[in-house]
Task: structure prediction
Amino acid sequence: MTKNLLKIALSLPLLTSCVSTIDQTIPLSDEFQTSSTVIILDNPSFRIPDSVYNNDLGIYSVVNAETSWKSSQKNLVDRKKDISFINYILFDDALSFISAEYEVDDTQRFSFTLQQNNENVSTSKCEIFSQSLTKETEANDIEFSSPSSHSSHNTRLKTYLVCAITHNQKLWQLTLKSYQNQTTIVQVKSDDRSYQVEDISQNVSLVKKGDIIEQRHSAPWRSLSSGLEFFDNKEQVGALSFVGKPKIWLKNDLPDQTKQLLVSINYSLTMFNWLDSDWR
Result:
């Protein structure tokens, strides 16, 4: 029995070494994927300089990418001091605790130009606003009034993204609203047209097992806002994956101008996710 257990233990590293996760993505219908072209991006290793956001997207190019510094405003919401004299007398615990709650508002802007065949086809100008609740706790020594330790915990409450996209002499508005533990709401509209956008809360891992690539669904609580699907009159025309390597799907039979617009929209969302990954 002991020998058998030893053989199993020795074989486990060999079995697990044959399986590796190569990427993550979102679940899409086979019909849509076979009739679409996917653009796969590499996540930037660094966030500066701005030129890291200038990318080739198949026949399109992102140029003149610019980002602003993030500005923050911190407001005190609550402050409490707790001195436990019972612990001090009975257990020689000479610590007092000061807890403070802050509401933190962050703002950041970014923009870029989309080109096709070295000609400008659209510009995107976006602003990110987020609000977080920060709890900070400081432990102090009662006898010497010296700080002993400090800890903080951040909770994202809400995130807004607003983009003005100029394409084909028409202004489009892209908005994203994300609230804690709620479905993300995305709208794309102009004066006379709009696209329907649905949030995807499923995550698929692409696992390589030998020469075979398998899809494995992740647990639901790990897949909040994994991607988006875009519809025009109930027909799916595009999709975006935030997980793994960013991926943009475009329906093959779309007019060139529609593809240009969808690329601008999806790259705006991709840059937003790079600059502020905490929104998810």
